[in-house]
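Project standup — Tuesday

K.O.: blocked on the structure for the chain from last sprint. Re-posting the sequence here as requested.
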Amino acid sequence: MLRKFTSLLVLIVLISSNMGLAFANVEPGMAMVDKVVSVEKFFNGAQTTGALVQRVSKLEKDVWGSEGTGSLLNRVDKLYSYSLVTSNSGPSFLIKLNAAEWSLTHAVTVQPAKARMENLERTILGDVSPGSLDDRLNQLLKLAYVSGKPVVANVTLNKDTLLKVKLLTALNTHTSKSGDAVAFEVNDDIYVDGSLIIPKGVQGIGKVTKVEEAKNFGRDAKIEISFDQVGAMDGSTIRTILGDKARLENKSLVTAAGASMAGALVFGPIGILGGAFIHGKDVDIPVGAEIYIQIKDTVNLYGI
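H.V.: unblocked you, prediction finished:
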């Protein structure tokens, strides 16, 4: 019976890769202009043009309501750290916004910070609030937490921790091309020692690595994909793979699904690499198809 149902699926091989994606690209040793661009993209979704000092002044006024003082280098470092870097000295704007949105809506969306805040304000307060971004975020945090702020903890996310994800990109051997980006979304909140590390709704990225259409004499269509990485609550990038532990979970999905396979993408025990297959048909995988993947490396992160 299991073989009959798995014959309705396609062979898909997952190959690990090192593409970059996260809530924010937080890297040590960045040049000053790169830090400004990172902050602009975080808040606005795109970098701006003009003199660097003018761009920094605008960001400061947006974030705190007034222009900063001191050297331009120190002002940029302050903006960058405040916006994107969580450490033992305090949480970043990014993780606080993630915490507020998750607490108030139980999901974290993928948009520029300004748009996310406006959406939250309309949903919770009925309209967009005036004031600096810092003041507006603090107002949301007071609604989300009794203390007015989330408790941030540094924890260890172990290698091979399972994630159930669903595809946000439709795949088809007629239209998909090698190198195409593949987006996916985490289905459930992931906790470590009581701290939320990866929130439901956070997105990850992979890519199509190979496409073969169905051929004569029952030669199967095949599409190879990598599920490479996912964002964390603190903005870190977490590398992901399909390993043996995930394959076992995906095999159980085949068994549990039975004849009802709509919307489910599962990976059975066939072959060394694992997979499920059909003979002589084209691959057509819809948005919403589900699969287990796993954490590639043990990493230290901040959660709430």
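K.O.: great, moving the ticket to review. Confidence is low (pLDDT under 50) at residues 1-22, 258-280. The radius of gyration is 22 Å.
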